[in-house]
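Fill in residues.
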């Protein structure tokens, strides 16, 4: 019987759906295991072979844990909102929902062909109102909460209001945008608008003025990962830095908890370090530098207050609110020109680029410890979001300050004894202080650090500035609040309307979801409003508690709704919770479902989400933990980043000035131009000539210079990209070789967490393995069923249990590539032993099932089983079968191996010597000599010294 993989795979895909094999429900009698893939965005291009890598890995683990007796949740859905669908809608006039649904259908078709064990009954799509209902709900809960530093958790805003009413800001220690101070009486005297503005300073979801990446052509704010070198990734349009009033989430309030939580999860050290760097905790001092004109003081944050004696200038971020106030008339033109030049650079690009640029503001500050005037400059190497957006520059001991000082010929004062700053700055983390204060300065400020070691100097300076009222000790974080507004159409609407005072008000939770309205175009309005400004049915009737026509707005009972939509990460920040209870219309997740599934046990996805998504989803979950919706504070217990599958490009070589192409091995004889060619018309680097001529009209009349009658293509490993014609469609592989071959081959390519090139040339070996496996079961005459019920031999059991032990270890350690090798080795051993025993071949199928489920299921039923192999029990390996009963020795004479000798493993030394010397082959090498010494390396070598 032939291995008809197309029929087999189609049969089992349909059977699994009909039998609801992968549907899962809470079952308190069984331990749970939650396996999750990072939320995919369905693009119009569909999947290429690189995309399923992580899905296959998670599917193997999910199937394995099910076989081990776990109740496994393995869901899938779609991150369905996003800029690409909206831009396509703008270009074609087609509603983005139509495009999104088409893309989802294409993804689903491709995913189904690969045989994943997803529970599709739990599918979620972020663009569906039943889903974004709960995104809006979470936003409203954040809007109605503040963060209490004393209790280290979110609290209802009503508790803050009560505190203000009783004592004003006295005793309040809450996360805020700006430190405020007022009495209870002053709070009582505020108007309703003033109170709402004050509360906005504390809300976890708040409106604030913030620096954004603004793209005028797209008419929207972009995230950092949507911008490259000042241009939008989508469309390549100019992007500028701009201060805009935006909805924000106070992620920074959770910075310390986000750091602490990293100690409780099983993530790689490198990923944790990436998160720690992004959060960027630093302990230091906030200091005040008075302006020379006496008008105000510059507030700066520094981790090295001890270096204040080495400050020779100050620097403002271009976006700092100080810039406008401190720029003198004489410098205004230069400053404005500089601000225009740098406004297109994102913060990420500014951090990466060490090019020195800047402009003098015209103003001076006073060093609070020396009394000296220091110039205030403006440069984009300082970021507005870190600290206060102003720094004291210590060029002797900071590389970027040093480069700036050398470029603009500013003083450099060393503070560490014996350091050399003639060519570069000196890392001042240790050493003995000098020039603190410098001899000859008029004022020492009452603090002398000379002679102290650095740690002692840091502590002394902190004590001094605190005692003298020059500043305060502070912990600072690099982590910024998340900008949560997008001026787009295709996103979750904000459940917010604006009252007569223009203040935001929440919709009642029972009125959710607020559905995305229809618009005539997906572009901003002619007056610059976001696309929702085109909606005619987009006002809130507070009396009837429903959406109504804009024409009825009276600012008494009918009010305008928010025109921005939420960003893409809104829908992907808590999707793992919704999978637990996707059809619940009363809650994001029921307490019962949450208590059972708790959090994700294994999360697999790309490294591109190492900061943004993981920070936001962890923040979101911690907030939901605070309000009692999530029972676990950390959402992802174990996280694996799969590597990238790179493309293996092929090239043809066109002889310059002709339509002739020369084969790779002969190209050195001609003047040629290499051209990318579609890898799908190349097999084992051999070009299909007819397919090439049909591929592009330009090559219809192509001629070829062949070698040995074939055209051999060149190759290179590059990013998989349509422009390089190296994209391999998994549908093509499945059609030609089957899904099980694809699954095994993707794992066989190399370690899961490493990037590796796709090379179709090697797939034949995996395909032959499956055909050989099939033939092992159908080994009777004319391909008939050949499995027998005979007792297995010791060698057959050894081969099986060696495989079980190896694959069990490999799956637990995600070493899937070596598991595939182990399958091949085992099958070769069983073939040599002519094993056809059920007792061996049945557990072999169970071990193979996570990797190649279709063929395993087919053969499982052929063995007589009536239930799915998914519900079989993972076999235990028996160490007894792995004990070696014989040992193979290499027998050497004077260090040169002459023959091999197989002996019982438990033989004593004297018996080993007698066996070696008594062997027929030994006489030839010993002759008439007497052995001087016999050296035995246990279980390996016998060396006879003559």
């Amino acid at each position: 019987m032939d291995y008809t993989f197309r029929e087999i795979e189609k049969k089992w895909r349909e059977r699994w759906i009909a039998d609801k094999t992968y549907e899962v429900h809470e079952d308190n009698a069984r331990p749970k295991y939650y396996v999750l893939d990072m939320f995919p965005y369905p693009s119009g291009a569909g999947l290429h072979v690189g995309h399923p890598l992580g899905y296959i890995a998670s599917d193997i683990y999910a199937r394995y844990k099910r076989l081990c007796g776990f109740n496994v949740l393995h869901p899938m859905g779609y991150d369905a909102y996003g800029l690409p669908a909206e831009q396509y809608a703008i270009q074609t006039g087609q509603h983005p929902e139509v495009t999104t649904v088409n893309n989802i259908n294409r993804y689903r078709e491709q995913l189904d062909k690969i045989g994943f064990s997803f529970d599709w009954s739990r599918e979620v799509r972020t663009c569906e109102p039943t889903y974004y209902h709960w995104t809006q709900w979470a936003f409203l809960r954040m809007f109605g909460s503040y963060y209490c530093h004393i209790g280290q958790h979110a609290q209802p805003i009503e508790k803050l209001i009560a505190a203000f009413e009783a004592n004003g800001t006295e005793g309040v220690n809450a996360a805020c945008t700006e430190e405020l101070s007022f009495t209870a009486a002053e709070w009582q005297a505020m108007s309703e608008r003033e109170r709402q503005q004050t509360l906005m300073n504390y809300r976890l979801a708040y409106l604030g003025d913030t620096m954004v990446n603004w793209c005028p052509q797209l008419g929207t704010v972009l995230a950092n990962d949507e911008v490259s070198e000042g241009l939008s990734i989508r469309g390549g349009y100019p992007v500028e830095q701009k201060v805009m009033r935006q909805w924000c989430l106070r992620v920074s309030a959770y910075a310390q908890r986000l750091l602490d939580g990293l100690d409780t999860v099983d993530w790689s050290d490198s990923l944790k370090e990436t998160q720690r760097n992004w959060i960027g905790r630093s302990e230091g001092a906030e200091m005040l530098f008075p302006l020379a004109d006496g008008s105000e003081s510059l507030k700066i944050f520094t981790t090295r207050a001890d270096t204040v004696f080495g400050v020779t200038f100050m620097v403002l971020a271009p976006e700092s609110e100080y810039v406008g106030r401190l720029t003198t008339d004489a410098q205004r033109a230069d400053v404005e020109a500089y601000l225009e030049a740098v406004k297109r650079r994102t913060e990420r690009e500014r951090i990466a680029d060490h090019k020195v640029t800047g402009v003098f503001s015209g103003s001076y500050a006073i060093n609070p410890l020396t009394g000296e005037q220091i110039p205030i400059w403006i440069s984009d190497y300082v970021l507005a979001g870190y600290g206060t957006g102003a720094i004291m520059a210590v060029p002797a001991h900071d590389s970027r300050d040093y480069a700036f000082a050398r470029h603009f010929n500013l003083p450099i004062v060393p503070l560490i004894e014996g350091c050399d700053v003639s060519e570069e700055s000196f890392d001042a983390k240790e050493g003995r202080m000098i020039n603190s204060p410098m001899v000859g300065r008029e004022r020492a400020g009452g603090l002398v650090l000379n002679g102290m070691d650095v740690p002692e100097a840091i502590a002394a300076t902190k004590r001094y500035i605190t005692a003298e009222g020059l500043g305060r000790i502070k912990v600072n974080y690099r982590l910024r609040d998340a900008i949560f507004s997008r001026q787009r159409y295709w996103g979750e609407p904000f459940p917010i309307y604006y009252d007569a005072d223009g203040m935001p008000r929440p919709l009642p939770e029972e009125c959710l979801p607020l559905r995305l309205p229809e618009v005539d175009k997906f572009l901003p309005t002619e007056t610059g409003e976001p696309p929702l400004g085109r909606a005619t049915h987009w006002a809130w009737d507070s009396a009837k508690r429903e959406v109504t026509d804009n024409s009825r707005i009276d600012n008494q009972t009918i009010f305008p709704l928010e025109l921005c939509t939420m960003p893409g990460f809104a829908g992907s920040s808590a999707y793992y919770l919704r999978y637990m209870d996707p059809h619940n219309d009363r809650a994001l997740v029921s307490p019962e479902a949450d208590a059972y599934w708790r959090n994700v046990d294994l999360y697999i996805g790309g490294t591109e989400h190492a900061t943004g998504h993981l920070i936001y989803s962890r923040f979101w979950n911690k907030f939901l933990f605070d309000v009692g919706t999530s029972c676990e504070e950390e959402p992802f217990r174990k996280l694996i980043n799969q590597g990238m599958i790179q493309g293996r490009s092929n090239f043809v070589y066109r002889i310059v000035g002709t339509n002739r192409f020369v084969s790779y091995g002969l190209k050195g004889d001609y003047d040629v131009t290499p051209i990318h060619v579609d890898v799908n018309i190349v097999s084992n680097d051999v070009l299909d000539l007819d397919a090439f001529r049909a591929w592009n009209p330009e090559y219809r009349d192509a001629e070829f210079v062949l070698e040995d009658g074939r055209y051999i293509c060149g190759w290179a490993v590059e990013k998989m990209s349509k422009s390089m014609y190296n994209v391999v469609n998994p549908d093509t592989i499945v059609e030609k070789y089957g899904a099980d071959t694809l699954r095994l081959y993707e794992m066989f390519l190399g370690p899961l967490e490493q990037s590796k090139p796709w090379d179709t040339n090697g797939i034949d070996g995996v395909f032959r393995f499956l055909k050989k496996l099939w033939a092992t079961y159908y080994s009777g005459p004319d391909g008939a069923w050949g499995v027998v019920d005979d007792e297995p031999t010791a060698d057959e059991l050894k081969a099986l249990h060696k495989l079980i032990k190896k694959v069990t270890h490999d799956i637990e350690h995600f070493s899937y590539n070596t598991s595939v090798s182990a399958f091949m080795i085992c099958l070769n051993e069983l073939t040599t032993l002519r094993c056809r025993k059920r007792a061996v071949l049945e557990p072999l199928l169970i071990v193979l099932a996570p990797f190649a489920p279709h063929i395993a299921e087919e053969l499982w039923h052929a063995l007589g089983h009536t239930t799915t192999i998914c519900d079989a029990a993972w076999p235990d390996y028996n160490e007894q079968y792995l004990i070696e009963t014989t040992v193979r020795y290499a027998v050497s004479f004077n260090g040169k191996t002459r023959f091999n000798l197989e002996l019982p493993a438990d033989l004593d030394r004297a018996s080993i010597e007698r066996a070696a010397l008594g062997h027929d082959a030994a006489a030839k090498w010993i002759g008439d000599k007497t052995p001087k010494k016999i050296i035995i390396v246990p279980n390996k070598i016998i060396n006879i010294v003559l």
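The chain has 29 helices and 36 strands.
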